[in-house]
C-alpha cells in the first residue's frame, strides 16, 4: 500500500519532469505528452528487455498510465511561475521516484534469478533509463551522467538488494529511505562525483 | 492489394526521407543507407517489442527491404535539384506512409488483444518511431514532436480502430483517407498544435 | 581460444573508447562507466533483439563484463598523456574488436537460420551498434556514419559468412584478418566513402 503511494509519487514526478523539459524545448502539446510518458515508462521497458521480461507488461499498468496522463495534463495547465515555485518539492518527488523505481527494478531482477551485477544494472536502468531517453529525445546531453550524484544511489539500492535477496519489507523500507536521503543530501550540498583523476600532463 | 501499394509507397517515402536527411548531414554512402533503413523499419521494430511480437519479424518483409533499398539508391543517384522539385510529391507520399503505417500498427495491436491505449501507442510508434530514431541518429531535435501537426493524426487512426475493433476493410480505407487528408491539410495551412498554455507570469 | 583473445581485446578497446569519450565530455565517474559498458555491450543487445535471441544473454558473459570493468578502470587512472600516446595502439585494438564482434554477430544470425541480409545487419549491429549508442548518449553526431570507412568492413564479414554458411574456423580466421587489415588500411590512407554523387545544379 505505502509502496504503491511512493511508486505513484515517482510516476507523477517523472512525468512532470519530462513534460517540463518538453515545454522548455517548445515541443507542441503532443510532444509534451510523449516526453512525459517516455520519461515515466522508458526505464522500465529497457529493464524488462534486458532482464528477459516482456516489454508489453507496460500495458497492464493502467493506474500508472492514468497517473502519468494526469500529471502531464496538470503540468500543461499550471502557470510556469507556480511550476518554478514547486521546484524544490519536485526534487523531493523525483528522489522518491528514483528510490521507488530503483528498488522495484532490483526486485524484478531478483525474481528473474539474475546475478548481482544484473540486479544493479536493473536498478539503475529503472531509476534513470527514462531520464536518459528523455534527454536524448530532447536533444540534450544527458545531465544524469554528468551533473550531480544521482544514479549512484540507484545502483546502491541494487547492490544492497543483490547482497540480501531474501530482504524483508521493513528492510526494503530502510533502503528506500536511505536512497531518498542520500539523494536529497547530494542536492542540498551539491555533491559531485569526481571527473577523471587529474594529472599534470 | 491496394493496401500493399499504399504500404510500399510509405516505405519508399520513409526511406527517401531518411536518406535525404543523411545527405544533408553529409553522412557517407553507408550512413545514407543506414539512416534510410532505420527510418523505414525502426518504428515497426519498437512497436513489435512493445506489443510483444518478435522484432525478428523484420526479416520476413523481403519485398519491403528491397523497396527501401531501391528508394535509397534512387535518392543517392538523383540530382539534388530534382529532389527539391519533388518535395511536394514527397510530402504526399510521406502522408500516405504515415497513414498506412499507423493503421498497420493499430491492427497488429488489435491482433494482440491489447487495450485501446496500447493500440493508440502502437499506431503512433509505427507511424513516427522511425522518424524519431532518424532524428536522434542525425543529431537533430525531433521535429516530429515540435513543428507541425503530424503524430496526432497517426494516433487518431489508433483511436478509431481501438473503438471499432471489428472494423471492415471499407471502413479502414476511410480511416486511411482521413489521416492522409488531415495530414495534407495540416501541411497546407501550416497548422500547429499549441505549445504550453501561456499565462502572464 | 585465439577467438576468445581477439574478443576480449575488442571488449577492452570498445570499453576504453566509451570511457575516453565520456571523459572528453566531462561526464562524472559513473557516467564514464555507463558509457564504457554501453559501447561494449550495446551492439550485442540490439543484435539479439533483432535476430530473436533474449537480450538477457548479456548477463552470462561474466568474464566479458569484468574485462570491460577493468579496462574502464585502467582508463580512468591512466594519465591523459599516456592515453594519447597509446592512440595508435587503440586504433588497432578497435579494428580487432570491430572484426571479432562482426564475425560473432554474423555467426549468431547463421545459428538463427536467418537470410543473408539479416546476417549482414547482425554483423554491422554487433560491430558498430555500441559505438552508435555511445555517440548518441554523448550528444554527438555519429561519426561512424560519417567520417571514414568503418562499418562497411563489418558488413563485408557478414556478407562473406552469409554466402558460405558452412564456413570453417580457418576460413573465419582469414575473414577476421581481412576485416582488421582493411580497417587499418582505411585509417592509414584516410579513405572515405563518397558522399552523395554530386551534380551541377
Automatic annotation (TrEMBL), chains A, B, C:
Its main location: membrane. The chain crosses the membrane at residues 6-23, 30-51, 63-82, 89-110, 116-137. It is a multi-pass membrane protein. The keyword Magnesium does not apply. One of its GO terms (cellular component) is plasma membrane. Residues 5-77, 92-161 form the Glycine transporter domain. It is found in: Cell membrane. It comes from the Bacteria. Pfam families: Gly_transporter. Keywords: Cell membrane, Membrane, Transmembrane, Transmembrane helix. The keyword Cell membrane applies. Belongs to the UPF0126 family. This is Trimeric intracellular cation channel family protein. It comes from Shimazuella alba.
Amino acid at each position: 500500500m505505502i509502496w504503491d503511494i511512493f511508486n505513484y509519487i515517482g510516476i507523477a514526478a517523472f512525468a512532470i519532469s519530462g513534460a517540463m523539459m518538453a515545454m522548455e524545448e517548445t515541443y507542441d502539446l503532443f510532444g509534451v505528452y510523449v516526453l512525459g510518458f517516455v520519461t515515466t515508462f522508458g526505464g522500465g521497458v529497457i529493464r524488462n528487455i534486458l532482464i528477459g521480461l516482456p516489454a508489453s507488461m507496460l500495458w497492464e499498468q493502467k493506474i500508472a498510465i492514468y497517473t502519468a496522463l494526469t500529471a502531464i495534463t496538470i503540468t500543461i495547465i499550471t502557470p510556469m511561475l507556480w511550476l518554478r515555485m514547486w521546484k524544490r518539492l519536485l526534487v523531493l518527488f523525483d528522489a522518491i521516484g528514483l528510490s521507488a523505481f530503483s528498488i522495484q527494478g532490483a526486485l524484478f531482477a531478483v525474481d528473474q534469478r539474475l546475478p548481482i551485477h544484473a540486479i544493479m544494472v536493473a536498478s539503475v536502468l529503472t531509476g534513470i533509463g527514462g531520464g536518459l531517453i528523455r534527454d536524448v529525445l530532447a536533444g540534450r546531453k544527458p545531465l544524469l551522467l554528468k551533473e550531480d550524484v544521482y544514479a549512484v544511489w540507484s545502483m546502491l539500492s541494487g547492490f544492497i538488494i543483490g547482497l540480501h535477496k531474501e530482504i524483508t519489507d521493513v528492510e526494503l523500507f530502510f533502503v528506500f529511505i536511505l536512497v531518498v536521503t542520500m539523494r536529497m543530501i547530494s542536492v542540498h550540498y551539491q555533491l559531485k562525483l569526481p571527473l577523471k583523476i587529474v594529472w599534470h600532463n
